[in-house]
């Protein structure tokens, strides 16, 4: 991860509203900082020149020029998340217990996420998913499998959840069915697919409650989220993030089964009442 991005994540909660505005613009538009003067950047954001300079000082830079140079160097040498995934595994390559240590690496990531999460945010997400009329979940690329699992389990425990599938869904019809009693869950991680974020923007404007599950409290989708559940691990690898995200999603589902017990029990009884032997193969000992 670029140093300026790491510094923003570490200092974001300590920044004033104006400096947070500059921080978000830098994360969303690094090329603007790389190619333009502080005066032009300030005008683009809608803040004073002094605010941009104060932002640089707040992150520990001597001024705008030092930050700009770092942003330029980062843009010229941006590796894909696959690079970070491989680099992390190369550290373990010579270890006798390679596979066990990969699992321990993920265990460490989950502990890191636990230390950052606020239980009150998870509980708020659970309560909203219990009370809402309908749920739409979106996740693109590596987040699609996570979104699919979440929709599958939501339909098991409460029902009326839908996965956004851009290849087949009628977007206009879908949007027309969402209202202030609906909830949109946006699963959005590094490389941040535009479609997930655009949906958040449109649905937020319609009064839909937006839950953002993302890798940072300053990720693009947070701009439109009513509630952010940050799942941040030390490396910028969407592949490595998946186990931690799945653990958080599983905790949310567990919360729904506990706090909406009666509905869950009814759905479980209905589910178990169906005889579907022709679809499932039980294990038999011969």
Automatic annotation (TrEMBL):
<dbReference type="InterPro" id="IPR035472">
    <property type="entry name" value="RpiR-like_SIS"/>
</dbReference>
<dbReference type="Pfam" id="PF01418">
    <property type="entry name" value="HTH_6"/>
</dbReference>
<dbReference type="InterPro" id="IPR047640">
    <property type="entry name" value="RpiR-like"/>
</dbReference>
<dbReference type="GO" id="GO:1901135">
    <property type="term" value="P:carbohydrate derivative metabolic process"/>
</dbReference>
<dbReference type="Pfam" id="PF01380">
    <property type="entry name" value="SIS"/>
</dbReference>
<dbReference type="InterPro" id="IPR036388">
    <property type="entry name" value="WH-like_DNA-bd_sf"/>
</dbReference>
<keyword id="KW-0805">Transcription regulation</keyword>
<dbReference type="GO" id="GO:0003677">
    <property type="term" value="F:DNA binding"/>
</dbReference>
<dbReference type="GO" id="GO:0097367">
    <property type="term" value="F:carbohydrate derivative binding"/>
</dbReference>
<dbReference type="InterPro" id="IPR000281">
    <property type="entry name" value="HTH_RpiR"/>
</dbReference>
<protein>
    <submittedName>
        <fullName>MurR/RpiR family transcriptional regulator</fullName>
    </submittedName>
</protein>
<keyword id="KW-0804">Transcription</keyword>
<dbReference type="InterPro" id="IPR009057">
    <property type="entry name" value="Homeodomain-like_sf"/>
</dbReference>
<feature type="domain" description="SIS">
    <location>
        <begin position="125"/>
        <end position="262"/>
    </location>
</feature>
<dbReference type="GO" id="GO:0003700">
    <property type="term" value="F:DNA-binding transcription factor activity"/>
</dbReference>
<dbReference type="InterPro" id="IPR046348">
    <property type="entry name" value="SIS_dom_sf"/>
</dbReference>
<feature type="domain" description="HTH rpiR-type">
    <location>
        <begin position="2"/>
        <end position="78"/>
    </location>
</feature>
<dbReference type="InterPro" id="IPR001347">
    <property type="entry name" value="SIS_dom"/>
</dbReference>
<keyword id="KW-0238">DNA-binding</keyword>
């Amino acid at each position: 991860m670029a140093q300026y991005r790491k510094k923003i994540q570490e200092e974001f909660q300590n920044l004033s509203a104006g400096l947070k505005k500059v921080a978000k613009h830098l994360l969303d538009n690094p090329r603007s900082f790389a190619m333009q003067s502080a005066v032009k950047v300030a005008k683009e954001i809608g803040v004073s020149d002094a605010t941009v300079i104060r932002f640089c000082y707040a992150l520990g830079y001597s001024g705008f020029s030092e930050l700009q140079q770092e942003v330029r160097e980062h843009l010229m040498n941006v590796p894909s998340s696959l690079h970070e995934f491989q680099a992390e595994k190369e550290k373990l390559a010579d270890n006798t217990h390679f596979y066990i240590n990969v699992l321990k690496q993920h265990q460490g990531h989950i502990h890191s996420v636990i230390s950052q999460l606020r239980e009150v945010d998870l509980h708020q997400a659970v309560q909203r998913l219990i009370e809402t009329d309908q749920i739409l979940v979106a996740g693109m690329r590596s987040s699609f499998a996570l979104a699919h699992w979440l929709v599958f389990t939501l339909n098991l425990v409460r029902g009326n959840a839908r996965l956004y599938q851009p290849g087949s869904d009628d977007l206009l019809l879908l949007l027309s069915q969402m209202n202030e009693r609906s909830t949109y869950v946006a699963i959005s991680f590094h490389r941040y697919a535009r479609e997930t974020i655009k949906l958040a923007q449109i649905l937020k404007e319609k009064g839909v409650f937006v839950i953002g599950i993302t890798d940072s409290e300053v990720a693009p989708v947070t701009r439109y989220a009513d509630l952010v559940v940050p799942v941040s691990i030390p490396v910028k690898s969407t592949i490595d993030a998946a186990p931690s995200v799945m653990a958080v999603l599983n905790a949310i589902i567990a919360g729904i089964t506990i706090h909406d017990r009666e509905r869950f029990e009814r759905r479980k009884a209905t589910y178990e009442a169906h005889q579907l032997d022709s679809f499932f193969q039980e294990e038999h000992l011969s």
